[in-house]
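Entry, Tuesday afternoon. Goal for today is a structural model of the target with nicotinamide-adenine-dinucleotide bound, before we commit to ordering more compound. Inputs were pasted exactly as handed over by J.K., no edits. I checked the ligand SMILES twice against the vendor sheet because last time a stereocentre got dropped in transcription.
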Amino acid sequence: MRMLNVGIIGSGNISNFHMKGYLELPNVKVIAVCDIDEKRAQAYAEKYNIPHVFTDYNEMLKLEELEAVSVTTWNNGHAPISIAALKAGKHVLCEKPLAMNAKEAQEMVDAAKESNKILMVGFVRRFEEKANLLKKAVEDGDLGDIYYAKTGYVRKWGNPGGWFADKKRSGGGPVIDLGVHVIDLVRYITGKPKPVSVTASTFHKLGMKPHMKGQGRYLSEDYNQDEPYNDVEDAATALIKFDNGMTLFFETSWVLNVKKPHNYVNLFGDKAGAQMEPELEFYEERNNYFTETKPLIETGSDQMNNIFNRQVSHFVDCILEGKPCRNPGEDGVEIMKILDAIYESAETGREVIIK
Ligand SMILES: NC(=O)c1ccc[n+]([C@@H]2O[C@H](COP(=O)([O-])OP(=O)(O)OC[C@H]3O[C@@H](n4cnc5c(N)ncnc54)[C@H](O)[C@@H]3O)[C@@H](O)[C@H]2O)c1
């Protein structure tokens, strides 16, 4: 059996999901970990029995036996680290968002082409069973022409603070953190149409509400309770048009005076409609009655582990078996173009045309 030697760059929260995925695979060995926080990297290496520990990714990339890396750092590290890894001849699985903006993302894709290595973006929700069932239904023409879609990723009180709320390190707030997932899902499921224009608003009204009590929320490892810093939007809304004639309504928030957090992905076609959240359902006309269909598929608490395991396993298959990459870097660029346009439109108050 051919073994693949992998490294982790950024040993924080989400890297554990990559790590668990690699541990499931008999043909993968995680041989190196790097984090600018030396204690965190050391603890991670001990926890997972990883032989090489680094605080500088350039040093780690000198390891000849290292063939691939997961880049799971703050967003501002994604482009420089992935480009350095690709130039050093390593395959890269980079967390979402691919980069801070489309220009950086394109540079990453160019580096992958030059090195002839894989650049895969961590659009992990593409590995959900219901996403793929819905995608298949769209491909089979079950929905007909999809002319309208709606998606939202709405939190009530969910600004994680720390680097997430520091634009220099994150690139933005819920748009780049949460919106990236659901905008990509809609585009992936509907056959990757090209975005052509965006009209958007971002809102900086509520801040992070650090004084709130009564409900738990996820906080970034580097959240500083004494000086909670926040210079990103707390919510956003956008109308995104695509070259296949589809209009997508999008909303997202970290902090919003809404009853409950909720997510949705809804597609409306001229033959049928579908929703993906909380459960996959199809709506159509049958024998002159409005009819709902609900496939009985995977739900439950293992879902998060399952999708990360599938994503990591796919990355490894692309490297070892030459499978075509489901999440190529180019898709990350298209999404970054949309996110750039959301921020630009919000700032200028005008529609932004995407070329
Ligand atoms: N796919 C998902 O559903 C999902 C969920 C959460 C986070 N993420 C993404 O994963 C990434 C990490 O998020 P997280 O929640 O794990 O954050 P985190 O703060 O828990 O971990 C990030 C780690 O990266 C380290 N780091 C930062 N810059 C570095 C550099 N230049 N070199 C080495 N290490 C560096 C930090 O010290 C930290 O330990 C982000 O890009 C985030 O958007 C994805």
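The two ends are 46 Å apart (CA to CA).
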